Structures are given as structure tokens and as C-alpha cells.
Amino acid sequence: MPVITTIQDLKEIYKRRVPRMFYDYCESGSWTEQTFGDNISDFAKLRLRQRVAVDMTNRSTASKMIGQDVSMPVALAPVGMTGMQCADGEIKAARAAAAFGVPYTLSTMSICSIEDVAAATDAPFWFQLYTLTDEDYSDRLIQRVKDANCSALVITLDLQILGQRHKDLKNGLSAPPKLTAKTIANLATKWSWGLEMLGTKRRGFGNIVGHVSGISDTTSLSAWTAEQFDQALDWKKVEVLMKKWGGKVILKGILDPEDAKMAAKLGVDAIIVSNHGGRQLDGALSSIRMLPKIVEAVNGKCEVWMDGGIRSGQDILKAKALGATGTMIGRSYIYGLGAMGQAGVTKALEVMHKELETTMALCGHRDINDVTRDILYIPEDFEGRWA
Ligand SMILES: Cc1cc2nc3c(=O)[nH]c(=O)nc-3n(C[C@H](O)[C@H](O)[C@H](O)COP(=O)(O)O)c2cc1C
């Protein structure tokens, strides 16, 4: 068993274990992947301020996200097709998150269904909703989320149309994978993944197959999803969805201060500064760069979280220092899941927690809730001067 000390270690095992099609699906951004890359590299521009001779006993990373206790200010982001990275992946990730004391978000485009995850876990999870044109299906989906006792609805706003990721087109991405000469050749080298997949019945889009009339196979499903994302989405529709749900709401995919103000006006519990991990508008600025302006614009009216590019506990601390009261991680836990299943997600969380706690202490703090901008050296042009 290799010694795993970083998220990068997990990524390398993940790359060896999981079919190329699903590795590429995860490890890509749209078009030139500029924003995907910036999300990561902009974190590295922020530097830390070393402090000494400060009592660092009794350290705590515990805090709250929308009133919920969390062992560190991190939630697992919704990731479509997680159950293709590892058999029953959503259930395994949700279990690892619950045991670690952080929230799990199930994607609309998951492989395990809402009911599957609810039956296999004790802690309430969050559900991520795409806004869809099929109102009847959308209403039934919201009812299923209520029936599963999900504790918050995460409404994703940055995917009315799909940003193009070249590799997915070239690989013919589907769930389950279609058996072409190329996929068979690749699958032949991924035995442990394949054996585990044969051991589960969950290999299609669990929230959709069987719940939408006229959908009997995944081929028609992909056509359905392309047609179903609501291109006519506007703030009024967001308000209607919030009313239908009636519980805690988190709006995901906000990258502009004006949009953040609109969201806060609706009375949401939290917004997530996000560019979908660089998978939608290529050329958009990184989430960490946009964070300070959005925190300022919202002015405490709702919680402001961020995601995109977090690959270490240091990144979580930097986001916290720039004003995010919470963060989400996507790829970092998927690497762990693909590498080692549930234990790999736990490992990813452990690695990040240790990095977070140690860095916080070396910056002179023992309670994450006391961390401010003071721990950072921020380049003068970090937010950029844009005309
Ligand atoms: C493979 C993959 C699938 C994703 N699927 C969804 C999804 O179904 N719904 C959603 O709101 N966001 C989705 N996202 C975006 C994530 O929720 C999150 O915003 C992003 O992964 C954060 O960036 P990071 O991966 O650098 O941490 C997906 C991201 C990835 C990498």
C-alpha cells in the first residue's frame, strides 16, 4: 500500500484505476481549460504569513455551514456520474462525508438515486437541482428530495447550456460506457474497476431512468438531458423553485457581484462562488479571485462559500481568509473515490484536514472561526485591474 500524503497521490492512483473516459470527464474544463487551470494556479499566488510564539494547543477547525455543524468548513460538491468513477460511488462518498462530519451533495445527474443514498446513509444529505423544462418531472424530483429528508437544496445556475469539453465528445462519454473497440481496449486494463461495476446494478442515471416517461435507455437519456436544461431560466423561476422547496437553499454558480446581490435579495441561505470547476464559461475569472468582491457585495446578507481549484487544506484556509464561510470540493474527493472507494474519500478529507489544521496553527491561529485576511500576503494585483 503506497503512503498517501497529498491529493496528488490519490490522483495518480485514480488515473491508473478508472477508465480513461471517466478520468477525462473529471479532469477537464471547457474549451481551452484556461479557467480550469486558473482556479488552481490563483490559489498559489496567495502567500501565508508565518507567526510564532502563539499558543497552538486545542486547535479546532469546527464551524457551521447554513447552521449545520461541520468538522471543517467543507462540503462535498455535487459531481455527476460519481457512480461511474467507482461502483456505488455516491453512497460511498456520502458515507465517508457523514463519518467525517461534513455535508454531502448528491447531483441530479448521479448514478445512485436519491432513494438509494437515503437508504444507505443515516445523516441527511443535500440535493443539487438542475433547472429543467419538464416541470412535472422537476416537481416530482423536489417531492422525492423532501421524502428523502434532504436538509438543503443546492440550485445550480451556471449550466443552462453545456460548456463544451472536447474530451467527452472524443471519448463518446456515456453511462454505462458503450462498448467500442477503443473503450474495450481501455476497460481491459481496468479490471478492479470492472469487477466492482459488475457487482452493482447501479450503472445508469438513477434519478432519471424510470422516472421520466419515454426514457428506456441511456442513449435517449443523453438526448433528453441536452433538451431538458432550462435555457429560459431567470430569477423569477429561481424564486418559484425556492417556494416549491420551502427549505434551506444554496445557489451555486455565482461569479459576479451583481448576481450575488440578486441572489442575496431572494433570501437564500448561502451562495457558492463557482464557475463549475472551469467546466462552463472558459475565460471566466477563477473563483478565488472573484471571492473578495462578492463577499463585499453581499455584505453579510447570506453566507458566501466558494469552490473551484481546492486541492489542499491550505487552499481551504486561504478561501476562509478571503471571506468564504464555507467551501466545496469536487475533484479532490473524486480522486480519492476512484483510487480507493470510500476509504479514498476519507483519505482525501484526512489529508486536507491535516493540512488545514497545521497551516492554521503555523499562521498563529487555533480556531478556524478567528481566521481573517490578516494571515495572507495578497499580491496587489490579485483581483486584477480590468477595464
Ligand atoms: C466530473 C464533474 C462533474 C460535475 N457535475 C456537477 C453536477 O452534476 N452538478 C453541479 O452543480 N456541479 C457539478 N460539477 C461542479 C462541482 O460541483 C464543483 O463546482 C467543481 O467540481 C469545483 O471545482 P473542483 O473540482 O476544482 O473542486 C461537476 C464537476 C466535475 C469535476
TrEMBL record:
Active-site annotation: 276 (proton acceptor)
EC class (word): oxidoreductase
Oxidoreductase as UniProt keyword: yes
Cofactor(s) needed: FMN
Residues binding glyoxylate: 25, 165, 276, 279
Entry's family note: Belongs to the FMN-dependent alpha-hydroxy acid dehydrogenase family.
Protein name per Swiss-Prot or TrEMBL: L-lactate dehydrogenase IldD
Organism whose genome encodes this protein: Planktomarina temperata RCA23
